[in-house]
Amino acid sequence: MPQLSKVPQGSLARTALSGSNMMNEHRTEKIQQRKDRELEARQAKSAHASNMAETEFQNRQLVMTAWERSRNREPIEYGKRTDLPIRAQRESLPVFQMRQQLVDAIRDNQFMVIVGETGSGKTTQITQYLDEDGFSSKGMIGCTQPRRVAAVSVAKRVSEEMGCRLGDDVGYTIRFEDVTSPRTRIKYMTDGMLQVEALKDPEMKKYSVILLDEAHERTVATDVLFGLLKKAASRRPDLRIIVTSATLDAEKFSAYFLNCPIIKIPGKTFPVDVLFSQTPQMDYIESTLDTVMEIHINEGKGDILVFLTGQEEIDTCCEVLYERVKTLGDTIQELLILPVYSALPSEVQSKIFEPTPANCRKVIFATNIAETSITIDGIYFVVDPGFSKINTYNPRVGMEQLVVSPISQAQANQRKGRAGRTGAGKCYRLYTESAFLNEMTPNTIPEIQRQNLSYTILMLKAMGINDLLNFEFMDAPPRSSMTSALEDLYNLQALDDDGRLSKLGRLMSQFPMEPALSKALIESTVQGCSDEMTTIISMLSVQNVFYRPRDKQQEADNKKVQFHHPYGDHLTLLNVYNRWKANNYSKSFCVNNFLHERHLKRAKDVKLQLESIFSKLRLPLNNCNGNIDLIRRTLVSGFFRNAAKRDSESGYKTITDGTSVTVHPSSSLYGKDYDYVIYHSLVLTTREYMSHVTAISPQWLVESAPHFYKVAGAESESRKKAKIVPLFNKFSQNQDSWRLSSIRQTKERA
Ligand code: CDP
Ligand code: MG
């Protein structure tokens, strides 16, 4: 029987659209509209927030301490707990009942699939069981996580449970951060980092057991590891591979790993009442905020978990909600508002695990990280707008884009399940039942089928895997995306005419970053500006360093302008870093200039890591004393494909395919009118924006990539007519012989 929609009146109905087939017909248009509205809404939000408070909730009294206060709290310290509660906690987890059975099965089987509800103890316990049982005497117990945050927080938790210092017996490795020691027996890491390790050690000799955790997420790196580990295991009968999943795709994993056994961990879950919206929601942000308010005011005890798509949305919601409840009085309990997303510092993140104080309700705004990667106790209410941000490769522009898309049914059910861990819960779905049944795909599409594979294919080539067609993918990526990745790598000269890894390509594969960046980095060592380039790339690899508090936007913008470089954002980033450095990396400098100290510190760490890769590879670190042209030219050597030419009508047009693009308003080149620019990425919001833009001279394109561009019409009398056009080069001509396997094999066959 379909659930009746019991969504709180007033809130959802107010923003509803009429016409129930609206969603089917105008899905794309709707997303676009939503984005437009989101932008407008964001500007109007503070004003709106106080209006709301005045009208709808005028007479209701709430006490609010929120997010600001929560940010000042001390982080939870697990280490202070006595041994007993921790042991009791460990033993209360569902997985504990299966301890012996699991350990025995892992000893007897090379491959194993473990399925269990989120929170049953798979990630934190199984590694410890194996360690306690002596597996780690034969090699480390490795456990991969698709997300950086999860790897760090789980390693912390396990080190606390084991009573050791993080980085000693238990450690973690994420990109540009290695917190392990020679003593480490249990190692958590991102799947991407294990993939990097496979480059040096394809047989995984350091490990006795590898747990591919959260395999249902199907990240590219996990998918590639499936293939690599299966191969490693065939050479090493003693190696054990465990795959865990929170969802129902276990059979598929088992079939792939030679029909290995599946062990199910019985979870203790409570029923969750599902409430669908009766009509499609036009603005899911508004609907979300309304629903949270309604729950807080009308429902009994229990914390709320809200799924949003990203950091910006989450921060906005936290602030708007804070404003809304602040103006209400004090007869209703306190509401503690907490954000969760990967970029959040770990001490703020650990707050979400703190028990909710008495007479207080907690609402957590999270990305889909809270679907399975982390478990928060005490959630009784889930608000699910039905969207998540996914990285999608857009072959038209040859770039990856983060796009807000509807989630799958599996994800929706996973989200729902988060409300039933502590007691019977409720899940508010801000979409119709018909949209759930007819418009959501049953399962999430594996990333490998929708992402740019350049980096992955560079790694595989570096491992000597040339025959990509016969690589054992669980779900092979579409041929078009493999070809386009090969083409990318060829254009960057990471592959030679025969499709084999060039010397440059081999060096590039040593850097865990997108190939365009590693190309620019290696080129900078030749050009003599690698000190500057490592800074720029480190700054690009961290979150936005500029901070813009709501109440001091103008002041913050004025400070930001002082860092702006006339030639663009890459040099602006270099300015920021260098001036921070000149100020002894001081905190006060960050505070005075509205810069996130934490992000700058991370950039400093990344730079150090890059420099250590340099010294391992014996690449020189050289400084060009601020030779701006040299730095920009070097950037072009990596990003020549992301070039755009000024166009009278629409701002800019990309040179490769004439897409209309605009300089992002946050760029230091916003409102400037250089003829040619390169950009780091395209961001699709209301239109296609170029983000991180730098002005260049067009001849650098031809000089850096003569195999890619030529000057057309240069011979004509008016030099103005000359323009840069992409060459349809050798790659296209050779494509057939290249396709997926290497040309060498074709030759051998011939
Ligand atoms: O992997 P799975 O989802 O099955 O569970 P887990 O991550 O091993 O978590 C088991 C329990 O450990 C959770 O219910 C949390 O109470 C606790 N935990 C924690 O307190 N802090 C963390 N960072 C991770 C887990
Ligand atoms: Mg887990």
TrEMBL record:
Instruction: Tell me what reaction this enzyme catalyses.
Output: ATP + H2O = ADP + phosphate + H(+)
Q: What is its main location?
A: nucleus
Where the record annotates domain Helicase ATP-binding, the positions are 103-266
Entry's Gene Ontology molecular function annotations: ATP binding; hydrolase activity; RNA binding; RNA helicase activity; second spliceosomal transesterification activity
Q: Does the keyword ATP-binding apply?
A: yes
> Could you say which enzyme class this protein belongs to?
hydrolase
A biological process (GO) of this protein is:
spliceosomal complex disassembly
Question: Which EC numbers characterise this protein's activity in its record?
Answer: 3.6.4.13
Protein name stated in the entry: RNA helicase
Q: What is the lineage of its organism?
A: Eukaryota, Fungi, Dikarya, Ascomycota, Saccharomycotina
Which residues of the whole protein are included? 350 to 1099 of 1104
